[in-house]
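User: I'm curious whether this sequence folds into something compact or stays loose and floppy. Could you predict its structure so I can see for myself?
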Amino acid sequence: MTALTRSTFGGGSQPVRQFTPQDCREPAIARLYVYWLEKRGSRRFPARPDLDPIEMRYALGNITMFDIVATPTGPRFRYRLIGSDIVARDGFDFTGRWLDDLPLPQYRDLLMSRLVQLMPDPSPLLVRNTQFYDDRWLDYEAIWLPLAADGETPNILMTCQIFNRMPSSHTGPLLGNA
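Assistant: Here's the prediction. I'll summarize afterward.
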């Protein structure tokens, strides 16, 4: 199975907008959320320069950042950063490329729907889902955190996705294959 076809999603994820760090299952995600809250201060959102990669090293390999680029037809999203753990897992690096060009239709559609969902009401979002990856179902948790150069209007969306190391108990059919 190639890196470009080895993944599908179990669906049924219920994104949570109102949550605390204690609601996060993954310690690195909870810690990243606390860090984001601290860097935000009294502003609605922190700016990208407020974040120090050294201070986020516990999560850095699992972080992706998307630039939000305004166009006449709506926002487009460009990969600004893809963590080394994600690149190693997926087998390719899309840094600097547009999300629309991602050759994984189901994953591209999932990411696009998350990003578009965040645009009208940008606020932190906690997501848990199940993904079929390399012949097994794995649970993951992800957090989506807006960043804003002006403290108010997001120009970057950052996510951290961490897979549970143990296979999921999910046994449903592959989406699109059932």
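Summary: The domain at 7-162 is CATH 3.30.450.20 (Beta-Lactamase). The first strand starts at residue 7 and ends at 9.
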